Sequence to fold (182 residues):
Amino acid sequence: MKNLIYIVMFLVPTVFFAQEKPKNVSEETTTKTITVDDGREVVEKKVKVTTKEEQEIKLAEDDKNKVNQEIVASPSKVTQTVEVDNDMDPMYDSKTQSVYYSYNDENFVFKRNKDGFVVSEIGTDVQTDYGHVLNTSRNNNYVFTSSDYNGVGYFDANNNFIVEYYDVNSKSVIKKTFTIAK
Fold:
């Protein structure tokens, strides 16, 4: 009986940990060091850029019972973190995190700030602010504000950002989905 309890205690956690979905994860870190001589002292400044791409592995339904299955293209989540060190201590002084999305064949970047996110449209040469996403007291619920509309936003199971707002002209609720950039 004692052995049976030990076996069950060992196998139950193993079953729960084995249910994770497989992902391709690649991470690239680039550090640039700049030395500035202002006449009084030489100061070394560092900029560290870490780009992480995560992509869920999805297999073709046609190959369901085969040994070698084809991988189907799936959206990837690209997160870029920029850290700046302005002085000689080993700690970085500031950190900015960005996630890239697309909507209607236009690219957007979500940059985290103290209140939530700033949504910027990525044009050919310039990034322009598109809207602001503010945190609320409820988990995964945000207030989205822009010059065109105001609404409620949330992240779905695929990490897409969805905004719902009331359109006065059509007298209906409009749903816009910012999908993770591929």
In short: Residues 21-180 form one domain. Residues 2-17 form the longest helix (16 residues). The chain has one domain: 21-180.
